[in-house]
Specification:
With about 325 residues, the protein is mostly helical. The protein has one domain (about 90-315): Orthogonal Bundle (MetI-like fold). It contains 12 helices and no strands. Helix 8 crosses helix 10 (about 225-260) and helix 10 crosses helix 11 (about 270-275). The longest helix has about 40 residues, at about 225-260.
């Protein structure tokens, strides 16, 4: 198990370096001078001298390779740099917004896994009309983009019926009920496709495991059907569910951007989009790297859980 974790960490570090390099080069290929954008944003018409002075102050006048070297050096010291616009450390900016995005990701994962496993196990065990209805519903759910579901919920639930707030964020410490209310619709929007994928995977795994010889043997020796299903069929079906749930959860880290914008949820989306718009290189690079690092860490956690569920996955 330790050897497996070590290998995953090594691969993860290489992936983070690749991501950092790609993001760095991609940002510097985008047209637009950050110094000019920053000075123009003040409402005045900047002089070329002022633009050049700001470029030197921000280190943008250096050759690309030297900027890249400085960037990697900062990463090795645990620093993500400072915002070109505000001068605030990127770690501080990300630290303020990351918990809100993670809250949305974990709430979506919890809802999706619980209902996905429940519906998938029910369809795989019962079959018949329940199975057919599930296939239709999950196919429909997977086909709906999260941002489309978000817009529909805002219009009907938030604006027309006024059952829930159509957007915004309320800290849990200020108003627990209001915080949960603002969390419901974003979670539903993101969990529709996630739940459908987990349900279909659970159903397939349950049907496959249920045909194994050792399951038939358990039934033949007189074990109760409920015991056979819960202890032998469902448990051995969870390996694939854990894997697909981990991948879907990782995708949510980057997939919440548009949904957060629709519901005005102050997570990483505003930070990332504003950073791209204003060419704030450190903010964009730091945000993307944090998301990538979480994705790598999540995959390692999934591998560890897989190893506990199925000993064959420990190698």
């Amino acid at each position: 198990m330790l050897a497996m974790i070590g290998k995953r960490l090594a691969v993860g570090l290489v992936l983070l370096w690749v991501v950092a390099t790609v993001v760095f080069l991609a940002l510097h290929m985008v047209p637009g001078d950050p110094a000019r954008i920053i000075l123009t944003g003040t409402g005045a018409t900047p002089t070329e001298e002022a633009i050049q002075n700001l470029r030197e102050q921000l280190g943008l006048h250096l050759p690309l390779w030297e900027q890249y070297t400085r960037f990697l050096g900062q990463l090795l010291t645990g620093s993500l740099g400072e915002s070109l616009r505000s001068g605030t450390p990127v770690t501080e900016l990300v630290g303020q917004r990351l918990p809100r995005t993670l809250q949305l990701v974990f709430a979506t994962t919890l809802v999706s896994v619980l209902f996905g496993v429940l519906f998938g196990a029910l369809a795989g065990r019962r079959g018949g009309w329940i199975d057919r209805v599930l296939m239709v519903v999950t196919s429909f759910s997977v086909a709906i983009p999260a941002y489309v579901a978000a817009v529909v919920l805002v219009y009907f639930v938030g604006v027309q019926m006024q059952w829930l707030p159509s957007g915004g964020y309320v800290p849990f410490s200020d108003d627990p009920v209001g915080h949960i209310q603002t969390l419901i619709m974003p979670t539903i929007s993101l969990s529709l496709a996630f739940t459908a994928v987990v349900a279909r995977m659970t159903r397939t795994a349950v049907l496959s495991v249920g045909e194994q010889d050792w399951v038939r043997t358990g039934r033949s020796v007189g074990l109760k059907e409920s015991r056979v299903f819960s202890r032998h069929v469902l448990r051995n079906s969870l390996t694939s569910v854990v894997t697909v749930s981990g991948l879907q959860m990782g995708a949510l880290l980057g997939g919440t951007v548009i949904v957060e914008r629709v519901f005005s949820w102050p997570g990483l989306s505003d930070l990332l989009i504003n950073g791209v718009t204003t060419r704030d290189y450190p903010v964009v690079q730091g945000t993307v790297l944090v998301i990538a690092a979480l994705f790598v860490l999540l995959n390692i956690v999934v591998d560890i859980l897989y190893g506990f569920i199925d000993p064959r996955g420990r190698d």
